[in-house]
Structures are given as structure tokens and as C-alpha cells.
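Per reviewer request, we include the raw input and output of the structure prediction for the construct analysed in the revised manuscript.
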Amino acid sequence: MSSLPGSLQELVEQLKTLPGVGAKSAQRLAFHILRTPREDTDRLCEAIRNVKDRVTYCSNCNNITDVDPCTLCSDAGRDHRVICVVEEPQNVSVVDRTGGFRGVYHVLMGAISPLQGVGPDDLKIKGLLARIAAGGVDEVILATNPTVEGEATAIYLARLLKPLGVRVTRIATGIPVGSDLDYADDLSVGKALDGRREV
């Protein structure tokens, strides 16, 4: 039985449901919230409510947004002839942060995973096909994760897209910059060798 007041214990239990938050972290966060001035906790609660009330998915690319279409799809400065396909909305910000990609995105909302019961029909592939059918798309970059599921999804999409007359490319995988070959796994080294390029 917990020695914490019921409402504080309930907060701890709710915080434990967050990804990466264990029992001790949840308790630390709960005590932090307890010590925080009321105005700060009200702002936190309001921010959480606003996210739930205002954030939705773009009807064009499936990225998270509070306007539809999203700001990336609406940006005339981006190259709409190149679509980067990612698994989840959080992948968009990872790719965009690099500053090296100025095209647009398409979020699949997952990856093919037969063991988890996720097939192609469970992903947002039809919207991608519709965007290509509408014309004006020259290249589709497959930026799914370098996992078994991500690779299966990329292979499936490549087979589906190539007959449509668009260039289909895959992001490189292999040894990360700044790492040491001694610590790389066999698969990463193999992928790095397969993806080698002229210097």
C-alpha cells in the first residue's frame, strides 16, 4: 500500500503510462509538479488540452498539424516533385532538421509487421498512390527505419511504385558518422559496404 496521498499516487500512476517513464521517474515528476507553482501546472494542463483539441493529421501527407493542409504541404518553397516517405510523424522532424531535404513528406503511420498484424492495407499507402497519380511527382525517397519491418515496407513500396514511372530511392544505411567500426554490428557494416559510393 502506498504512503502517498491518493491524488498524488494517481498522478504517479498516470505518469508511469508515458513511454520511458518508470516508477521512480514518475514519482520524481509527480513531486516536481506538486512543488511547482499553480500557474505553471495550469499552463502544463492547458498545453496538454490544446494538443488533444487542436492537433490532427494533414489530409494530404498524414503529418501532425493544427492547420489542414499542414505548413509543409502548403509551402510553395518546397519541391513538391520529391516525396520522402517515413513511418511516423516524429520522423518528419528528424529528416527536416537536417536541412538537406526541401521536398515534401508522406507519413505511412507504421510499417508492415505481420507478427503484429499490420499489413499494407493498415498503412496510409493509398494516399501516396493518389498523390503520384495526380502527377507532378518525379521521385519518392523511402526513409523507413532500417529494421526488418522498415525494410519489408520499403521493398513492398518500391515494387508498388516503380511501375508508376517515378524514381524510387532508399536512404542509405550503415555506419553512423562519428562511430567506430569496432562497435558496429555485422548488419550495419554490410549495409555500409553495399551502399558505398565513389570518392
